[in-house]
Amino acid sequence: MSAPDKPAPPVVGKVMPNSIELYWNQESTEDTSGGRLQYCIQEEEEDARKGFGNVYNGFAKSNVFKGLDENKTYRYRLRISNDHGHSPWSQVITVTTTKIPLCGYDLHRAVLNWEVEKVQAILEESVENLVDSPDAFGMSPLMVAAQKGYTSIVSLLIEHNADVNYSNASGKNSMMMACFGGHLKVAHQLFEHGASVDTRDKGGSCCIHWAVDGGKTGCIQWLLDNGINVDVEDDSGCSPLIRLASMNGSVDVARILVENGADVNKVDKFRKSSLMAAAVNGNLALVELLVENGANLHAENEYGKTAVDFAESFGRKEVAAYLTSLMQGSSADGEGEKDPTEPEDVELSDN
């Protein structure tokens, strides 16, 4: 009786990014008189000079080796033992783990890090079309790049047929993101490739509302130059000017809207005007701009409150004093003047 003969090398089964399955069928070497066969699998060390090390020792005829690195080459050999000794080592086999499939997360991470070459590689190598894959917030890679102002990545995504009008669950799209961030070059890129400038989100806001929210004068003027209605309303009836005043926005932005014909006396669904909103926020400079351009001091909201009432209620003393002085001056100017709706006194004669 003798030790087993040199075995055939292990057979490769299922190979994954982090695991390799090996199995061996050595029935021809079975020898009942030699006792039960035991199998040893060795893997070559990372430093090949150190040789091989044991990774399996037992009686099974297969094993899955886990915890491996993706896209890495491994080398294995097999030895069989019985009661009489060990066989020679088998021929070495070489197995390479697969790559982890690329996914939307990889693309979004590369976009966020402004890794242009990596973005291109992912778009070209991925089996699945990932160009419009949403992140956890439902934003496409193009929306993220537009928000960041990454013109080179925007170009690359568009070249790979990214949907320029893709929107998330709230209805926001890449053009809105670009306008909010004030990224005029990105807005031009998107517009040239068919992006809409008047699409509305789920709250009825369109690009100019978002540009106003971001305080970006360049994008606001560009949108107005491309035909956007300066008084377009969102679902609450807010024009861009009312929205700006409600958010205590910039006087420079307000001036652009006014110069482009914004109605300073427009009201929302609650009959709130931009002057009332500016008064609530105590924005004296904006209040002055609106008054200088014809804002009605006496306009009332649905509860009969004027801008000065709001200023006083919220403790905006400067605004309240300014508006009160104007209203008093207006009353004084009109004092003694005849109401044109009253009939004139006619002197009656005896004749």
For the CA atoms, what is the radius of gyration? 38 Å
Share in β-strands: 5-15%
Number of helices: 14
SSE order, one letter for each helix or strand? EEEEEEEEHHHHHHHHHHHHHH
The whole-number mean of residue pLDDT values reads 90
Task: Give a concise summary.
With 351 residues, this protein is α+β, with helices and mostly antiparallel strands. The protein has 14 helices and 8 strands. The radius of gyration is 38 Å and the shape is rod-shaped.
List the helices and strands and how they pair.
Blueprint: E1 11-16, E2 19-23, E3 38-44, E4 52-58, E5 62-66, E6 73-82, E7 85-86, E8 93-96, H1 104-112, H2 116-125, H3 141-148, H4 151-159, H5 174-181, H6 184-192, H7 207-214, H8 217-225, H9 240-246, H10 251-259, H11 274-280, H12 284-292, H13 307-313, H14 317-334
Antiparallel strand pairs: 1-2, 2-5, 3-4, 3-6, 6-7, 6-8
